[in-house]
């Protein structure tokens, strides 16, 4: 007899379910202080919970699975989810940092390792990847995404989904990916979290939607719905978004979960007059599971009975939830990731469970060298290094936001990293020098975030005393390394900023260090582009390390001492100031563009400041140098459906082996709608020995020339195109061809 198909299995199961049991499957609850374990197990046994999140050990999840499988009427298994965003027990660099590697193997390694660790802790699903395009660094969640570019973020979305889900979401070492936040969350007005999103359809289709689509096409089993409005209708009640676009146009077949409390928030948005209406709107839109609220549970039974919600809507949602459980292999074996109690790890945080080598490798690939005057870096392994700054010895900040089950005590600080690398060949003198901020209101705010315990600890000494101590350390040293930036809570959900400066307390420290005349290496730790004008002008070397994870200190020391030659490139533009935002490289062309070197009058510019970014998209230095030749095209024109090849010779012209990222951009010379000045359409990470050169060939095909026209049709139009190839988005060579 042939095995029963998924559809038949689910249909048979649903035929046995009562309305209440169906509605129970739509409830996704957070394990937290609100309900005792005993209460939760009772609810599960009564068939009133479909899945949970935030419980992260086999010991915690086994009794819940027992309650579902052994004590509920139909024995439908639970699933267990968690925000495994950039690591689980081992914390990898934050997503924005990983994007800076432009290294798809490194990014896949981080996601695969995270899935292996999290599934071994009984988790089935992650609320990741987060692929919201961000062009506004004021938004704290910029740190959680992969930057500003639709192509780069889409490539990463695909790689991440495949690495998380492995051979199949049913595999015991896989996590089902739920891509988030659908949709457009990164475009909140003014970069203020949870603010409205209002966007033209063309921009939406062209720039913001592609990464979600890429994740779904790569097989993501879930979608998490955004908290924001999309052109006047909250995503969680948006039938166009959830049905017409996601399911009908894109063919998504998977589970859609709301974000935390989002259905309740429909009343606050003012599209629902009460909880009953909110539940009706959300289920009608196609939100299958309600996260962390009780509205579905309370309201759906009455709504179905009164006929306000057709049974078919409930069935559609239940089918997706059961379908996801089926795909995760839970009907085959509800314990496939929980395992047997006898095999539980005696210590979930055991050192042996960490993947430090992988974390270190990804972390060093994720750093971006922004400045390096007179070969200040790499440092010699010898002499005396003064290490200063509030982030130099802060374990917790190395973790970045959404650090899953990572334990700060297991992270390596820069102080430890430098000492380990130097051994007895040199000396590190450490002085904290400043608090992250002296603004007590900000400290209180940061300590109020959802951390288990307050984590911004203020050194009670007067600022002047701390600076004096650091200056004294600097005077005795050959070089000063200053680890400064933001505490991790500053680049976090609900941590939007109006300023992008390094906080004043740290700037004062840097200024004082500068007066010593010692070479000043600034090591940045932060989760968003910052305003670095002062640092750029005053530092001898500037290294962006983001929040580098469990192995931060070792990985940064690898770069500082040249044991690894930095190869990262910015996945997001660094503006010159807050006033210049939005600053992104792929903006549309203008009728009155500013031309550098020409008078600015009556051109599009700010008269007080240059128009270009401080550091452009794609930028990053190395300890060696590279050159790129002019472009050779295989043909001057491309027939419809054809392809041509664009090649350059890239040479390592410096004294060291190194890696760089060769980037390919396309500019559509004229089209039926205004097109961007350029768009990334390909890239290649290349390792070259000192003196080595290599021809790098890119295929350019018609698909790379397509865009959404005024009717939102995706098509390429005949005419001229410029291919641009270079090592950042500004310094490029160009060649023209025609699409026939
Ligand atoms: C965030 C989501 C996250 C969810 C569950 C929400 O506050 O917006 O990104 O997945 O919480 O932890």
TrEMBL record:
Name the gene: bglX
Q: List, alphabetically, the Pfam families matched.
A: Fn3-like, Glyco_hydro_3, Glyco_hydro_3_C
Q: What's the name of the protein? A: beta-glucosidase
- Name the keywords, alphabetized: Glycosidase, Hydrolase, Signal
- Family the entry assigns: Belongs to the glycosyl hydrolase 3 family.
Task: Give the InterPro entries listed for this entry.
Answer: Cellulose_Degrad_GH3 (IPR051915), Fn3-like (IPR026891), GH (IPR017853), Glyco_hydro_3_C (IPR002772), Glyco_hydro_3_C_sf (IPR036881), Glyco_hydro_3_N (IPR001764), Glyco_hydro_3_N_sf (IPR036962), Ig-like_fold (IPR013783)
Enzymatic reactions: Hydrolysis of terminal, non-reducing beta-D-glucosyl residues with release of beta-D-glucose
Which residue intervals define the domain Fibronectin type III-like in the entry? 660-729
- Superkingdom of the source species: Bacteria
Keyword Transferase part of the UniProt annotation: no
SUPFAM superfamilies assigned: (Trans)glycosidases (SSF51445), Beta-D-glucan exohydrolase, C-terminal domain (SSF52279)
Keyword Lipoprotein in the entry? The reply is no
EC number(s) for this protein?
3.2.1.21
Please report the organism this UniProt entry assigns to the protein: Pigmentiphaga soli
